[in-house]
Automatic annotation (TrEMBL):
Taxonomic lineage: Bacteria, Pseudomonadati, Nitrospirota, Thermodesulfovibrionia, Thermodesulfovibrionales
Pfam entry (one): CsgG
PROSITE patterns: PROKAR_LIPOPROTEIN
Protein name: Uncharacterized protein
InterPro entries on file: Curli_assmbl/transp-comp_CsgG (IPR005534)
GO cellular component: outer membrane-bounded periplasmic space
Superkingdom of this protein's organism: Bacteria
Length: 346
């Protein structure tokens, strides 16, 4: 009876924690009747907004298969590495991917050998792949497998009962990938990604002789998939969707409570509760090359409250720490966030 009461108490406690967690994480609500247009809301951000932000143009991205000089080149791991990376970008929805037929034509003209070539001539690529903004190139830097045998064992508990554990075999694989993201037409490296993935399968065996890798290619491809999945956040955050603030309002009673109306919505992958970064662009001139240099600076964050204005519009609550720094005309960009369950199951 005591055990039943303890169990009920335990599960009630867990349920209470979950309720508090989900209620605490519920998206904030805004009553626009409490807000008005004040003097600060008539101010305009004095910065340069790039044209692609105003037009909300998605960058065009190509993914070339990585080279593979590992002992497992027969497994053609480069095919799945390319496919998993393409799927990750496609699911994010914040880039335009080069169609497969167009990509194959580019590869043929470059004389790029899938699984063997790891680099490209940036100038030649820029001429052939006109309109492509970014390209992923890289290599499979590591691939290995091993089998570990654990002999059968037994142990006796305090009540004198003996427990037995069967002999087992763990099949382990680890892969490493290095991708570089080249930006065109310049061909410069914008970012490098170092990805590591591991996969382990367990099974019972009758002897150490039976403990061998049964399907090395299948095991390594699972590790490739995990390597790319482990870097998903970094990949997605490399291509945020940009918009801008077209209106702000201030709480009638508390001037530190302000909201921004932004040109990002559900079609851009955001929802109530999402965090959005507020950006200021600075335009400078290179004194040597006499060319414009545009850099960005994060000046704050806001939390999405409402997304039902239009599929490309929403209301964002400006953090109180940034209330006096944010004006109409500032840029905004999406920020990828892991869900509670994604963090839990990592």
């Amino acid at each position: 009876m005591v055990f039943i009461k303890s169990s009920v108490s335990f599960f009630s406690g867990i349920l209470s924690i979950l309720i508090v967690f989900f209620v605490g994480c519920s998206p904030p609500k805004v009553s626009l009747m409490d807000y008005t247009v004040s003097d600060i809301d008539n101010k305009k951000a004095m910065h340069f907004i790039p044209d692609y932000i105003v037009q909300k143009k998605k960058p065009k991205v190509a993914v070339l298969p990585p080279s593979d000089n590992t002992p497992y080149s027969r497994c053609q791991l480069y095919i799945n590495a390319q496919e998993f990376l393409v799927q990750t970008l496609a699911l994010a929805g914040n880039v335009e991917l080069v169609e497969r037929t167009h990509l194959n034509a580019i590869i043929d003209e470059l004389k790029f050998r899938a699984g063997i070539s790891g680099d490209i001539d940036p100038q030649r690529f820029a001429k052939i792949a006109e309109g492509v903004d970014f390209v992923f190139v890289g290599s499979i830097s590591k691939a290995y497998t091993q089998a570990r045998f654990t002999p059968a064992s037994s142990w006796t508990d305090k009540k004198g009962k003996t427990h037995y554990t069967s002999a087992s075999c763990s099949e382990e694989a680890e892969t490493g990938l290095v991708f570089r993201l080249l930006e065109f037409p310049e061909g410069r490296i914008q970012k490098a990604f170092n990805m590591i993935g591991r996969q382990t399968n367990y099974r019972e065996v009758s002897s150490q002789y039976d403990c061998r890798i049964q399907d090395p290619c299948g095991l390594l491809n699972k590790a490739i998939e995990k390597a790319i999945n482990n870097s998903k956040n970094e990949i997605i955050n490399t291509f945020p969707v940009y918009g801008y603030i077209y209106k702000t309002m201030t709480n009638r009673k508390n001037p530190q409570e302000r909201v921004a109306f932004i040109t990002l919505g559900t079609s851009d992958g955001i929802k109530a509760g999402s965090m959005v970064e507020i950006i200021e662009f600075i335009k400078e001139t290179d004194p040597i090359k006499n060319t414009d240099i545009i850099t960005s600076k994060i000046i704050g964050e806001c939390t999405i409250s409402e997304t039902d204005l239009h599929n490309d519009r929403s209301i964002c609550i400006i953090g109180e720490d940034y209330a006096n720094k944010v004006f109409t005309g500032h840029a905004v960009k999406t920020k990828f966030q892991e869900s509670f369950w994604q963090r839990l199951t990592k």
